[in-house]
Amino acid sequence: MEMVISASDVNKLRTMTGAGMMDCKKALTEANGDFEAAIDILRKKGQKVSASRSDKEASEGAIFIKVNAAATEGVLVAINCETDFVAKTDDFQKLGNAILELAAEKKPATAAELLSHNLADGRTAQEHVIDLVGKIGEKVEISNYFVIKGECVVPYIHSNLKLGVLVALKGGNGSAVVEAGKDVSMQIAAMKPIAVDKDGVDAKTIEREIEIGKEQARAEGKPEAMLEKIALGKLNKFYKDNTLLNQDFVKDGSKTIAQYLDSITKGLTVTEFKRVSVAG
Prior knowledge:
The structure is a single chain. The chain is an alpha+beta fold. Helix content is 49%, strand content 20%. The protein has eleven helices and eight strands. Helix 1 packs across helix 2.
C-alpha cells in the first residue's frame, strides 16, 4: 500500500530543497516519508539531469564580482546556464552570490577547487549546483573564475550582468583613480583588448600577425625585400588597436589610455585586467 504524503510534508521538503512540488511528492513517496532519503533522491535526480545535459550549450548566465573593502583585491565568477530566463531567477542569482562570497573567502586556485568547498549549510558548492540543475532542468557550470590584486582594483559589471571587468592599477589611489579605473574598465568592456601592453601579447599571436601582414603586402604587389618592414608597421597598428595602454581613449580620442591615466596621476598605469562575458 502506497504511503499517503501530506501537503505539509511536501511543502516542508520543497522549502528545504527548493525543488518543485511534484518532484518533492514523488521523492517523499519513493522514500516512504523519510526526509533525508527524499533529499538524496532529489539530489540523485539532479545528478541525472546534469549528466543528461552535459552536451548542451550553456551560453547564457551571469557575472558575479566582489572587490574587498580596501579595493586591493577583486574576485570574478562567471556562472553559465542555458537560458537567459534561468539566469535571472532568484535561485540562480542566490547561488551565484553564495559561490562568489565563498570564492572571496577561500580564494581557491581553480573553479573545480571552488566547487569542492562547503557553503553555509555544510554542503559543497558542487552539490548546490547539482540541486539547482535538478530543479531547473538546465546545465549550470562555472565557466570562469579569477582573483586579481593590485594597489587599486576597480570593477565594472554591465547592466545585463553578462559582461564583467576587473582592472588593477598602480601608481595611485583615491577617488580620482577609482573614477579613472571605471573609465578604463568600460574601455576594456567595449574595445576588448587582448593584453595590457605589447609585452603581454603572446609570441604565437605576434608571429601570426607578421605573417598576415606579409601576405597582405605581397597581395598588394609590394617587393619581397619590403615585406618584413611593411609587416612590422602593420604589427604596430595591431598593438595600437588591441593592447589597452596603446588604444585611443574612447571618451577622448586625442589621448591613448596610457596618456589618459598619466594625466590623472603621473605614473598611473594598469598592471592587469580580466574581461569576461557569458554570452560570447
